[in-house]
Amino acid sequence: MFSLNNKKALVTGASGGIGKEIAKSLVEAGAQVILTGTREQALKDVCNALGSSSNYLVANLGDSDSLSGLFNKAEEMTGGIDILVCNAGITKDNLTIRMKDEEWEEVIRINLTATFKLNREAVKKMMKRRFGRIINITSVVGFTGNFGQANYCASKAGVVGMTKAIAIESATRGITVNCIAPGFIETPMTDILKDEVKQQILQKVPMQRMGTPKEIANAVLFLASEEASYITGNTLHVNGGMYLA
Predict the structure, then answer these.
(1) Range of 34's domain?
(2) Annotated binding residue at 20?
(3) Which residues form the active site (predicted)?
(4) Cα(194)–Cα(120) distance, rounded to whole angstroms?
């Protein structure tokens, strides 16, 4: 339905459940995709499955040296990135009264600061070409809060505010900047939860099920497409009714 023929995309956190599905959807829509992540073999496996329209760059977004130049490397490999999807993120859960400085700082550094730096590099290049799609993956808990996740919630709420500011600054240059806020999604991370924990989660979701990575990827595909060209500075909530904006 949505065509991304001749478009080039960079997807961070592309070896995980959601990132992998995002990359797959973009390739199927006709895009050339550069995947990034910390696990080289996992990235190779995804690229092998996706075929010649994909390639990868190993990068640790929490390391300034690794992050520096990442966007430029992706541009060199493709001739110019049209679509940036900032999906990479980590958790370091703890009660606020027990949370160590490093637990706070590492989550903010990877989830928020790295996302900002990639957005900044993307906007610089996209403004010159007068076209771009930036999609930042936030979270439902950036709006609702969550027990034991002050650092994660702050990082994801920060992404939303940052996205709005960058969207306003770049709107006249053909660039859209939006967020997607997933709810609870079926991934290897949620697969390991005990059944009673899953039931507690589902009690908060009106649809009474978890979402799938494909449903997040579909939202990315829409925001990356020409059909979403008049949408910017917004958050698309994909959460089964758990949070109603």
Answers:
(1) 8-238
(2) no
(3) 152
(4) 40
Instruction: Tell me, yes or no, whether 2 lies in a domain.
Output: no
How are beta strands 8-11 and 32-37 bridged, if at all?
parallel
Looking at the domain assignment, is residue 13 inside a domain?
A: yes
Q: Which residues are catalytic?
A: 152
In-domain check, residue 245 = no
SS3 string, 7-73, reads CEEEECCCCCHHHHHHHHHHHHCCCEEEEEECCHHHHHHHHHHHCCCEEEEECCCCCHHHHCCHHHH
Query: Taking Cα atoms as reference points, which of 231, 175, 178, 225 lies closest to residue 31?
Result: 225
Predicted local confidence at residue 214, as pLDDT: 97
Environment class of 136 (CB within 10 Å of its CB; exposed 0-12, middle 13-18, buried 19+): buried
Residue 34 and residue 84 in contact, taking contact as beta carbons nearer than 8 Å: no
Q: Is 111 annotated as a binding residue?
A: no
Q: Is residue 201 part of a domain?
A: yes
Q: How confident is the model over 140-178, as pLDDT tens digits? A: 999 999 999 999 999 999 999 999 999 999 999 999 999
CA distance 132 to 166: 12
156: domain CATH number?
3.40.50.720
Question: Whole-model pTM?
Answer: 0.95
Flag whether 216 is marked binding.
Answer: no
